[in-house]
Structure prediction request, 271 residues.
Amino acid sequence: MTICFVKMHGCGNDFVILDQRAHRFDVDPAQIAALADRHTGIGCDQLIVIQPTPSADGFMRIYNQDGSEAGACGNAARCVADILLRETSRSDAIIRTVSGDLTATRRGDGLIQVDMGPVRLDWTDIPLAHPMDTLQLDLPGAPAAASMGNPHATVFVPDLDAAPVTTLGPKLEHDPIFPQRANIGFAQVLDPETIRLKVWERGVGLTLACGSGACATLVNAHRRGLTHRRATVILDGGALDIEWRDDGNLLMTGPVATSFRGQVALGTYPP
Prediction:
């Protein structure tokens, strides 16, 4: 079967997006991993599938490089929103995910804002394997934890360039305290309105950007009294504006870009 795809990215966090709204087809974990491979496939951090759904503009499924399914991805939500908004010429769209509905709105200067919904802070929501203070986990680096529909832990460091992202990141990702593994952020607070961030993403590794990770980082930074409720989060691939509203929801605003479009013979994957 030959299918069409579009390659997009948000701040360098890149996606292969497949559209199943007109024609349904199966994609198994082995095919997802093969398509995501940067040497023998198309290459991406996550593979995204848009599916039809009632009472929303589209259902977004998110798959990591290893074929595992994720519950949230802010950068992918902006990319999918761009596709849906271009189809309808509307200024807003509703994207359904396994973690809930997201409202996306087109802003000026090529930016899209997504209401990422409420942050969850109880240990059962992260989830953790047993009760623990989510503001300071009993782990190396004493990270704070939060869920944006997917589990995040944030390690605050004085110098991000010297942070052990590629060594401590995978260790924390697979720590038994996280039964579903976790995305591990390393954050340096520059001032109350500016944060530098690197994210070791579960099932992916080090990425250029992570939208849900930026949201979780702002929440954890504000909980520790390090920032205001709104800040610019600077990632290796670009910057995101994050606001933690008083109602508990997170607003994420950032750019999207289309890299290229193409077709792939799905039956040839894995090679």
Observations:
- Residues 117-254 form a domain with the Diaminopimelate Epimerase; Chain A, domain 1 fold (CATH 3.10.310.10).
